[in-house]
Design a protein that fits this description.
Elements (H helix, E strand, L loop, with lengths): L1 E5 L3 H7 L3 H8 L4 E5 L13 E2 L9 E2 L1 H11 L5 E10 L2 H8 L3 E5 L8 H6 L3 E4 L9 H12 L11 H4 L18 E2 L2 E2 L9 H19 L1 H6 L5 H9 L7
Parallel strand pairs: 1-2, 1-6, 5-6, 5-7
Antiparallel strand pairs: 3-4, 8-9
Helix pairs in contact: 1-6, 4-6, 8-10
The structure holds S-adenosylmethionine (SAM).
The site of S-adenosylmethionine has 20 residues, from strand 5.
Length: 244
């Protein structure tokens, strides 16, 4: 997969994407990440990428010419998404969608954002990583890149993970999980997980996913059409593990 990122802080993105799973995926040739710096396309002696907004107002905006020139020169894969708080909310469904493409590109804003003509004419859409305002698009770009690339075949050790974890096939949050020791500071691992009864463990796990999602993300329960009569019985059979 090829991913191109347009940013005036290419090192921030490159460094983050050089570690752990993603770093290995790049080293193995599974991910071809290319950063392009609009500042390289400025023509003035100060290499200026920002200017004051027409009509006045707080802060500075990114000028259109260096961004447009860097996009023209890169031959980057489409879609090209601007990162911005006003965009479509990036979620696991969209990560899965992007993971199915051969590549995509991201444009990071800074200051108070970018000249709107870039948004209107040169990008294919806008992506938000949440209802929060960051100082720049680089952290958002890293979030998108990590969420997408871990879904690519060969990147994660366990191909089952995206199916069984939160927002997976059943649309629920993940159940609580435990590792050794079986008792830690007097806190015990639920007996069912040590029973060896795999059918019962699977039922307990589904019950815990349901309990947790009902308590913490009722919107996800509504989105999957509620709880079936069989699932209701599971909820009664297995009480919820405390989940503060
Ligand atoms: C300070 S923000 C600009 C915010 C803009 N003035 C507004 O009110 O919507 C600077 C840059 O950070 C990035 N950014 C900030 N919050 C973001 C979010 N929630 N999701 C994605 N990118 C974000 C965008 O690239 C944006 O152009």
């Amino acid at each position: 997969m090829r991913i191109d990122v347009f940013t005036i802080f290419p090192t921030m993105v490159d460094r983050f994407c050089s570690e752990a799973l993603l770093g290995r995926a790049r080293a193995n040739g599974l991910v071809d990440l290319r950063c392009h710096d609009p500042r390289e396309y400025t023509t003035d002696v100060h290499r200026t990428v920002d200017d004051a907004p027409f009509g006045g107002g707080a802060g500075m905006l990114m000028r259109p010419e260096p961004i447009a020139s860097s996009i023209d020169a890169a031959d980057a894969p489409r879609p090209l998404y601007l990162l911005g708080p006003g965009g479509r909310r990036f979620d696991q469904a969209m990560a899965t969608e992007l993971a199915g493409l051969g590549g995509f590109s991201l444009l990071c804003g800074r200051y108070e954002g970018i000249d709107h003509r870039i948004r209107e004419h040169l990008v294919d859409g806008e992506l938000s990583v949440g209802d929060v305002v960051l100082a720049g698009g680089e952290v958002a770009a890293c979030l998108v890149i990590e969420a997408v690339t871990r879904l690519l075949p060969g990147v994660m050790g366990n191909a089952e993970s995206p199916i069984t974890e939160s927002f997976g096939a059943d649309g629920l949050l993940e159940e609580p999980n435990y590792t050794r020791p079986a008792e830690f500071r007097g806190w015990e691992v639920p007996a069912v997980l040590r029973s060896g009864d795999h059918a019962r463990i699977a039922r307990w796990r589904l019950a815990q996913r349901l309990h947790r999602t009902i308590a913490h993300r009722p919107d996800l329960i509504a989105a999957r059409g509620g709880v079936s009569p069989d699932e209701q019985r599971l909820l009664e059979e297995f009480p919820a593990v405390p989940y503060p």
